[in-house]
Design goal:
25% of the residues lie in helices and 20% in strands. It has six helices and eleven strands. A five-stranded mixed β-sheet has the order 5-4-3-11-6, sandwiched between helices. A four-stranded mixed β-sheet has the order 7-8-9-10. Helix 3 packs parallel to helix 5.
């Protein structure tokens, strides 16, 4: 075996000792950037280990792995589908509009009356049906005006649609007011033509039945006070026995009550009757209110 001289062993030990001490306290002046052949600063080492964006001076750049392209998965063959038919609005509600138990009947009567918009007579609520029913309800003060074909809407539309204006024996001149007591409707005729209505009315309740017959308006007052009932009667047109046309003072479609013989009208209708009438205008009443 070859013998190593003692002096060489001492020199080698000194070199190892110096290198170990320098690794803990690097000389920033000797290698300020941490690059080249000197020792790296602590911050540069963190960057070189991956905490930063570049490699350290003593770290070989590793080749970036080439991403393996995944094989595209075969797309499933779409199954043939039928073209869906347009979804029909549910029969119970359309455009926020409920369907009533008299849908088809109301559609039929509104289509016959006309003037309230497009209506399809099929017994199914639609946006157009709803709009027409609401317009009808608003015109005749049917509450609530929600577009639902309920009992009151059905009753009013039927009475109006089945009113035969030819049954009134109107005068040959001037304005004649006609009142169908059976259907509780009224209208005006002038020169052989209907110039107002038919519209709804409410006449005397049981015990106060409005009599059939032919009369003439003999007194008018824009606002008459009723002594026996202590209430104002707007657009008052009297024709017989303390009875006459006037604007209703209660909900017109409450069939549990009625007038004390007068012919009640909705506000807009009372104004129109006032405009058409005058002292001497003819009033023809026929039929009989049901239940009286």
């Amino acid at each position: 075996m070859r013998q190593v001289p003692f002096t060489a062993r001492v020199v080698a030990l000194a070199v190892v000792t110096l290198v170990g001490v320098g690794a803990c306290t690097p000389d920033r002046q000797a290698d300020p950037g941490g690059r080249g052949g000197g020792l790296a600063q602590v911050g540069s080492v963190e960057q070189g280990t991956g905490a930063g964006g570049s490699s350290g001076p003593d770290q070989r750049t590793r080749p970036k792995p080439t991403p393996t392209k995944a094989k595209p998965k075969p797309r499933p063959t779409p199954k043939p589908t039928r073209t869906a038919a347009p979804e029909r609005t549910a029969p119970t509600r359309a455009a926020g509009c409920p369907q009533g138990e008299h849908q088809r009947e109301v559609e039929t009567y509104l289509a016959r009356l006309g003037g309230f918009g497009r209506v399809t007579v099929d017994g199914r609520q639609s946006a157009a049906d709803c709009a027409a029913i609401k317009k009808f309800q608003q015109r005749y003060d049917i509450r609530p005006a929600a577009g639902r074909a309920g009992p009151t809407t059905y009753d009013v539309s039927k009475r109006l649609a089945t009113t035969d204006t030819r049954r009134c024996k109107a005068g040959s001149s001037g304005t004649t007011f006609c009142i169908d007591l059976t259907r509780q409707t009224t209208w005006a005729v002038r020169g052989g033509k209907v110039v107002w209505g038919p519209t709804v009315t409410r006449t005397g309740m049981p015990g106060y039945a409005t009599p059939a017959g032919t009369y003439k308006i003999n007194y008018r007052n824009l606002k008459e006070w009723s002594d026996p009932y202590e209430v104002w009667l707007p657009y008052w047109q009297h024709f017989t026995q303390g009875m006459g046309y006037h604007q209703t003072t209660t909900y017109l479609h409450d069939k549990s009550i009625g007038s004390h013989g007068c012919v009640n009208l909705l506000p807009a209708d009372a104004r129109r009757a006032w405009e058409l009438g005058k002292v001497g205008s003819r009033v023809v009443l026929f039929g009989r209110r049901p239940g009286t």
